[in-house]
Amino acid sequence: MDIKALRQEFIKLYGDGDDIREYLSPGRVNLIGEHIDYNGGCVFPCALSFGTFAVARKREDRIVKFATTNFDLKVEVNLEEALVYVEEHDWTNYPKGVIKELMGKGHEVGGYEVLISGNIPNGAGLSSSASLEVLTGVIVNDLYNLGEDMVELVKLSQKAENLFVGVNCGIMDQFAVGMGKEDHAILLNCDTLQYAYAPLKLQGAKLIIGNTNKRRGLADSKYNERRSECEAALADLQIECDINALCDLNMDEFEAKKHLITSNIARNRAEHAVAENARVLEAVDKLKDGDIARFGELMNASHDSLKDLYEVTGVELDTMVEEARKVAGTIGSRMTGAGFGGCTISIVKEDAVDTFIEEVGKNYEARTGLKPAFYVAEVGQGARVL
Ligand code: GLA
User: Fold this and answer.
1) Strand 45-58 vs strand 21-30: parallel, antiparallel, or unpaired?
2) How far is the CA of 211 from the centre of ligand 1 (A)?
3) Ligand 1 touching residue 173 (CB < 6 A)
4) CA–CA separation, 29 vs 45, rounded Å?
5) 3-198: what CATH class?
6) Is the pTM for the entire model greater than 0.90?
7) What are the residue boundaries of the structural domains of the chain, listed by start?
8) Which side of the chain, N or C, has fewer Cβ within a 10 Å radius?
């Protein structure tokens, strides 16, 4: 639903009046640098042109009314009462968590009514939850003039997901959603939060997102499990190495010290993290030099490592990537996001895009029984007041 139609729906639901405001928060796709944001590594995501729209208006009381065009569920919360996670409150737990974080910083937050409409497929690994969180930060910050900057909204959105929703995610998704820039990817150092924008000069090639339509079932518990495996590897390495995160090591240092990691599984996870970080830095350099072919090879290597060492791909993502790589004109292809289902990202020569979508679609469906969806990604701007 576009913003004009959403405004009309808002008026139908809550009534007309002054000072109705409009917002947009994008989804994101990560080009390379997977499962290393929480290991102090560098990542290279970008914001998408589609995302989550909202129309909102301040209220005089302290009631927040949530509604969406995507689901029937409507929820009202009273900010006079403690905000707690309620299973039946479903998607509204994300905005509730963000409001709680803002209030926790001492901000005076009052009531508002909001109608939200998202066009990011849910559970597809394109950050529909981060989009909703940052959107909420932007709305409340704007309606109540809180004066927070975007990086702060990004940080407290991540905190809301960690503490309120209980998913121990890193900062990448919220950062990409909040700080995205049209036609640029963001090189983000997740340890220092230093970042730089890199123009996405793909020399005519296109970014194709392939949705496996395999929902990310046990993703959250598996995600938290991977994090603890990395923490175990780090603790073993710290016996001799003066480091705060796995990605503080380069590959040579890791090779020299990897024997300290007692579990084979944890050693594999750590090897992925260290090597992936090096791949990101090389990939960004190659993009700058216009060497898209090498960028694609690094994407392929990233996927293979996520499959063999990190074990977060699964048959659907592997099948889609395998089929993608068979198409002449595919420069690189990998899973993107947390894994266990969700989406792949491929760089494909412009004249091969139609063949890619047709061939990968047909062969993927024949092999998995699932009907995939493809989007030619446009790289958009971060979350904002419209
Ligand atoms: C999810 C998390 C991110 C990041 C990716 C994997 O999207 O929310 O913080 O860890 O998985 O790279």
Assistant:
1) antiparallel
2) 17
3) yes
4) 6
5) alpha beta
6) yes
7) 3-198
8) C
